[in-house]
Specification:
Layout: H1 6-13, E1 26-32, E2 37-46, E3 51-60, H2 63-76, H3 81-84, H4 89-95, H5 104-121, E4 135-137, E5 142-143, H6 144-154, H7 159-166, H8 176-190, H9 216-236, E6 239-247, E7 250-257, H10 265-280, E8 285-288
Parallel strand pairs: 7-8
Antiparallel strand pairs: 1-2, 2-3, 4-5, 6-7
Length: 297
């Protein structure tokens, strides 16, 4: 279970400003239901002084998404548009007395919705797809520009943090290398000692968190330990998981019972993947056994 603050719970169970704002003259839509999070932010702006008179939201998402949207509407009411544009996702999280690291992407989504709504009011095109940026995470349609901006704004340094803030890399993990390259680019800009040309990709093959390389036996034992630790929780929900095979950084597992075919399968595998990566000190991919193809096929 996530460790939610009392204020997050308060804004989840009793959200402020939820519903349709009929008088809205600025509307911002971000996310998508297919990705698990979608938010529509509606603003009523005074055209004389560009002050936000009212703000409401509609969201499809978790408790953190609802709480973040509720907090955002409270924060921006009474601000001018220029003042609202300076609101950061960290301010949204701070308003709620913090969010679990794994849920920081909800506050980022709120900030994006705010920028989209203001652009809509001003008759501008808000480039939520950042056409100039290469698509990094196909699962959640997250591009390099958004990842880069989020890394800079929140001083991120690991793939896990990027996933927490943007969801990129939280599903199939095939984009982890691309995320590492963006991290390396930003890290190179922060570092004034070496020349930019000397900055190497962010330890694409190096262990994370500075952990030493494990032997094959130690590696397998840690993978088994993580799987055994999560099994009781899955079994309580009438599901289960077993390791089928480990091939390099690919860990093939079989979900059983209620977990097999569950709509939360990707989230379950993503959570297990993060725990194994942390335990091993390296980036890995946890894949359902259906993704495994014998050699030569």
């Amino acid at each position: 279970m996530w460790d939610y603050s009392e204020k997050v719970k308060e804004h989840f169970f009793s959200p402020r400003n939820a519903g349709v704002l009929e008088e809205a003259n600025g509307v911002g839509d971000v996310g998508s239901i297919s990705c698990g999070d979608a938010l529509r932010l509606m603003l009523k702006v005074d055209p004389d002084n560009e002050t936000i008179l009212d703000a409401r939201f509609q969201t499809f998402g978790c408790g953190s998404a609802i709480a973040s949207s509720s907090a955002l509407t409270e924060i921006v009411k009474g601000k001018t548009l220029d003042e609202a544009l300076k609101v950061t996702n960290q301010e949204i999280a701070d308003y709620l007395d913090g969010l679990p690291p794994e849920k920081m992407h909800c506050s980022v989504m709120g900030r994006e919705a705010l920028h989209a709504a203001i652009a809509n009011y001003r008759g501008e095109v808000w480039k939520d797809d950042h056409e100039e940026g290469a698509l990094i995470c196909k699962c959640f349609a997250i591009d390099a520009v958004m990842i880069e901006e989020t890394i800079r704004e929140n001083n991120l340094s690991t793939v896990e943090q990027v996933t927490n803030y943007t969801k990129a890399g939280g599903s199939c993990a095939t984009c982890h290398e691309g995320i590492e390259e963006v991290l390396a680019k930003v890290a190179g800009e922060r570092c004034t000692a070496p020349a930019a040309s000397e900055v190497k990709p962010a330890a694409a093959a190096a262990p994370i968190n500075g952990k030493p390389k494990l032997t094959n036996y130690q590696r397998m034992r840690k993978i088994e330990e993580v799987i055994e630790a999560v099994r009781p929780q899955l079994q309580r929900d009438h599901g289960d998981i077993e390791i089928v095979e480990v091939e390099g950084r690919n860990i093939y597992v079989k979900l059983q019972g209620a977990c097999h075919g569950c709509m939360m399968e990707h989230a379950t595998l993503g959570g297990i993947q993060s725990q194994i990566a942390e335990a091993l000190g390296e980036m890995v991919r946890v894949l359902p056994v259906s993704s495994h193809r014998p050699a030569g096929h």
